[in-house]
């Protein structure tokens, strides 16, 4: 290898907490900085920094992604009441991911990293199934009433600035029961649709979308309608050019087909469906540490991260001076995803190529039986399999990477 590869435009780097932060810096030190000449717009979202800046640092990081278009984020602590006391925080700061997602108006997509020696629980899944969850509204922003006894449950809409309210009877209760009101907005559904079409086009994969519009003829039907409008207006031509498809089907049909498929699509889900199905997919593909997460805004800004958290339990052991066998795969892929995107946007194929080589080096390391504890448990039995510490795992990847460069 001669000189370092030059990354033309800056990358937004968002640092985080605990074991994820320890691995983050190892990845930079051992797998990135020796080979890349890159300018990083650094934002430290460690819990202490967020507290010191009254969480302004999180807002600045999100705005930097808007400015530069591409960023990568390390997992961060969302403090609970005990952590507020423990760290003497000014308040129970909100989830940084929630704040960043709100500023970018983005959707989170999750994708598994596939390796030959970890088989999905569903044997015909050959390619990753990417999942996009609409993370706004529905049952997650509802109102509920515990109905104590007989009475009328109604749905009422009062137009702003006057006009006759719309009033529908949901149920005339004869006894005790329950009642729930949910909503969504055209704007949020449209942003979700745009982010899904953007991601599918970026990955060059089919987009599946599914709701229950045979039963919910207004609410779910509105989701279907907005997706179809968006597709016809802005995406059909580009999808045709890439040879990819937009496919709508009922949610039950989608579930049945996903199980029988070989994977390789983006599955866009309503909020509840996405919550449930993403956990099913993560578990079926083997390990949370082999799952990446990408935040895509409707304007086409991208933020790459690992789907797992700060791995707090391993950090407790690390603080005691013990070595851990934590898995950095998803963190490595957060960086490579970001570098490949940066290279695409900058039209610098050598940067894209570096990202691909690092991914290949990481995958081959696992496929050759060099494993961290979490994947040792789920890998296909092989006499070569050996559980290693995090540093050894990274060094094995670095060795393969050097051979490829
Ligand atoms: P977690 O950090 O994802 O870890 C849960 C468990 O999963 C770990 O204890 C470990 O199991 C296993 N695991 C996860 N990632 C692993 C890796 N890279 N290598 C090996 N094993 C891994 O979730 P959590 O413990 O519920 O949350 C910890 C903190 O992370 C919380 O403060 C939470 O707010 C935050 N969090 C942040 C994000 C984010 O910023 N994106 C996402 C989720 C959670 P074993 O202990 O059995 O080995
Ligand atoms: Mg869930």
Helices and strands in order:
Blueprint: E1 5-6, E2 11-15, H1 18-32, E3 36-37, E4 40-44, H2 47-52, H3 56-68, E5 70-73, H4 81-86, H5 96-104, E6 107-112, E7 130-133, E8 143-147, E9 151-157, E10 166-173, E11 177-181, H6 186-203, E12 206-211, H7 219-242, E13 246-250, H8 251-260, E14 265-269, H9 271-285, E15 291-296, E16 302-306, H10 312-319, H11 329-346, H12 349-367, E17 370-371, H13 373-376, E18 386-387, H14 390-404
Parallel strand pairs: 1-3, 2-4, 2-5, 5-16, 7-14, 12-13, 12-14, 17-18
Antiparallel strand pairs: 6-7, 6-15, 8-11, 9-10, 15-16
The structure holds NADP nicotinamide-adenine-dinucleotide phosphate and magnesium ion.
Magnesium ion binds at residues 275, 279.
Q: Could you explain how this protein is built, in words?
A:
The chain is an alpha/beta fold and 405 residues long. It is 44% helix and 21% strand. The strands form five sheets. The protein has a ten-stranded mixed sheet, with helices on both faces. A two-stranded parallel ribbon has the order 1-3. Strands 8-11 form a two-stranded antiparallel sheet. The radius of gyration is 23 Å and the shape is globular. The site of magnesium ion has 2 residues, from helix 9.
Give a brief description.
Helices cover 44% and strands 21% of the residues.
Please report the number of helical segments.
Answer: 14
Percent of residues in beta strands? Answer: 15-25%
Query: Averaged pLDDT, please?
Result: 96
Radius of gyration, taken over Cα atoms and rounded to an integer in Å? 23 Å
The proportion of residues forming helix, as a percent range, comes to 40-55%
Characterize the quaternary organization of these chains: single chain
| Low-pLDDT sequence parts | none
Overall morphology: globular
Q: Separation of termini?
A: 6 Å
Got a strand count? 18
Main sheet: strand order: 4-2-5-16-15-6-7-14-12-13
Give the cofactors and ligands.
NADP nicotinamide-adenine-dinucleotide phosphate, magnesium ion
**Could you describe the largest sheet, including whether it forms a barrel?**
10 strands, mixed
* Helix/strand structural class: alpha/beta
């Amino acid at each position: 290898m001669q000189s370092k590869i030059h990354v033309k435009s800056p990358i937004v780097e968002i640092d985080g907490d605990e074991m994820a932060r320890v691995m983050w810096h190892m990845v930079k030190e051992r797998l990135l900085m020796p080979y890349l000449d890159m300018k990083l717009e650094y934002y430290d979202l460690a819990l202490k920094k967020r507290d010191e800046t009254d969480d302004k640092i999180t807002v600045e990081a999100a705005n930097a992604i808007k400015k530069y278009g591409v960023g990568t984020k390390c997992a961060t602590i969302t403090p609970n009441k005990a952590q507020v006391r423990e760290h003497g925080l000014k308040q129970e700061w909100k989830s940084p991911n929630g704040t960043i997602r709100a500023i970018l108006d983005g959707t989170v997509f999750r994708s598994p990293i596939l390796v030959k020696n970890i088989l999905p629980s569903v044997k015909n899944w050959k390619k990753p199934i990417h999942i996009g969850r609409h993370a706004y509204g529905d049952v997650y922003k509802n109102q509920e009433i515990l109905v104590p006894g007989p009475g009328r449950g109604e749905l009422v809409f009062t137009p702003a600035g006057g006009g006759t309210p719309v009033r529908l009877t949901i149920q005339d209760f004869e006894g005790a029961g329950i009642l729930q009101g949910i909503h969504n907005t055209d704007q949020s559904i449209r942003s979700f649709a745009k982010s899904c079409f953007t991601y599918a086009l970026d990955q060059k994969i089919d987009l599946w979308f599914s709701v229950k519009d045979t039963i919910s003829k207004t609410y779910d039907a509105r989701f279907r309608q907005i997706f179809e409008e968006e597709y016809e207006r802005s995406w059909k031509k580009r999808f045709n050019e890439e040879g990819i498809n937009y496919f709508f089907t009922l949610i039950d049909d989608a579930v049945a087909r996903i199980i029988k498929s070989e994977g390789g699509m983006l599955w866009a889900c309503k909020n509840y469906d996405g919550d449930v199905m993403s956990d099913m997919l993560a578990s079926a593909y083997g390990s949370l540490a082999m799952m990446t997460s990408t935040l895509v805004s409707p304007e086409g800004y991208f933020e790459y991260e690992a789907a797992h958290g700060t791995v707090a339990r391993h950090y407790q052991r690390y603080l005691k001076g013990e070595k851990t066998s934590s898995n950095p795969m998803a963190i490595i892929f957060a960086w490579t995803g970001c570098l490949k995107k940066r290279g695409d946007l900058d039209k610098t194929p050598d940067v894209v190529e570096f990202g691909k080589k690092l991914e290949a080096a990481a995958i081959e390391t696992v496929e050759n039986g060099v494993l961290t504890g979490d994947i040792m448990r789920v890998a296909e039995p092989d006499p070569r399999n050996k559980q290693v510490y995090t540093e050894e795992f990274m060094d094995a990847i670095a060795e393969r990477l050097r051979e490829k460069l």
